[in-house]
């Protein structure tokens, strides 16, 4: 992001160099799926069939299957991106700045034991072990577009539940106006923590109504399995109408605060990355246009036909009203 200045913001082999695997041929290891001991997985028989049909993963990680979501806007019908693309073309700067680095380096991330601390302006603060957090509410599958500020996008079947479920349980106080997400910064296992690329830990935040919006997903899995490390294991958020960098990975603290939290990218370059970061084709990044995007997997590399970027990444009907009256040019 900050340190790159080409149109696409990357200097990695183009996605067409990555051989797409046939992950959507419909073959999946049913036994693995049904073994689904991964805590809290909700596995109805139709969900298993559905997963068979749509979400073939490599079968290396523990199954985590959710029932198809009924939340409005949660299930795009666009072609889902190849698992290989979604797990080898990543931004996770703690493990390096090249798109291929997280897949290469994130094996060192230790995801058990893992605790998420809920603190700040809540009536019921506490520490949640990851297994308890996974079980806190029923898992759903959500097929969301994820649009990176760099100008590329993917379609990913995430598994999790609305962050609102957790927020309701911890009972925010009246003066809690924002939710801050603090992620792991462990120099022993994360080779780039300590580099000057960002001010660690990676921190993101949402306004309370954004955090409570049913589309905001507390995410534990993708493609019917637990999250691979490079995608933010064991828990991240996914906020589909905002640029990808709002979707903080490997969260260790969820903090309820009164004032807008300082976020990692905003601290690094305030004129480029605002707090809101809503996908908005009408507000250019200072160094490139945001009018179009390249769907990873479309082929053609840098010369691929680009798609028009939609307002709020296509989720305007669901979230547009959150920003009524807000000047989106100023609050980018
Ligand atoms: N979270 C942490 N902790 N560190 C990061 O560098 N990168 C962000 C976001 N979350 C990032 C992060 C950015 S820029 C993007 S586009 C998305 O993760 C990418 O998510 P994905 O690799 O699962 O597609």
Automatic annotation (TrEMBL):
According to the record, cofactor stoichiometry and binding are noted as: Binds 1 Mo-molybdopterin (Mo-MPT) cofactor per subunit.
Give the EC class as a word: oxidoreductase
Question: For this protein, what reaction is catalysed?
Answer: L-methionyl-[protein] + a quinone + H2O = L-methionyl-(S)-S-oxide-[protein] + a quinol; L-methionyl-[protein] + a quinone + H2O = L-methionyl-(R)-S-oxide-[protein] + a quinol
What this protein needs as a cofactor is: Mo-molybdopterin
Modification(s) after translation = Predicted to be exported by the Tat system. The position of the signal peptide cleavage has not been experimentally proven.
Residue stretches making up the Oxidoreductase molybdopterin-binding domain? 110-265
Task: Tell me which stretches of the chain form a coiled coil.
Answer: none
What Gene3D superfamilies would the database entry show? Oxidoreductase, molybdopterin-binding domain
- The record lists Mo-molybdopterin as bound by 90, 93-94, 148, 183, 231, 236, 247-249
Segments of this protein annotated with the region Disordered:
1-21
**Care to name a GO molecular-function term for this sequence?**
oxidoreductase activity
E.C. numbers: 1.8.5.-
Q: Superkingdom, according to UniProt?
A: Bacteria
Per UniProt, subunit arrangement is: Heterodimer of a catalytic subunit (MsrP) and a heme-binding subunit (MsrQ).
**Cited function:** Part of the MsrPQ system that repairs oxidized periplasmic proteins containing methionine sulfoxide residues (Met-O), using respiratory chain electrons. Thus protects these proteins from oxidative-stress damage caused by reactive species of oxygen and chlorine generated by the host defense mechanisms. MsrPQ is essential for the maintenance of envelope integrity under bleach stress, rescuing a wide series of structurally unrelated periplasmic proteins from methionine oxidation.
The protein depicted here goes by the name Protein-methionine-sulfoxide reductase catalytic subunit MsrP
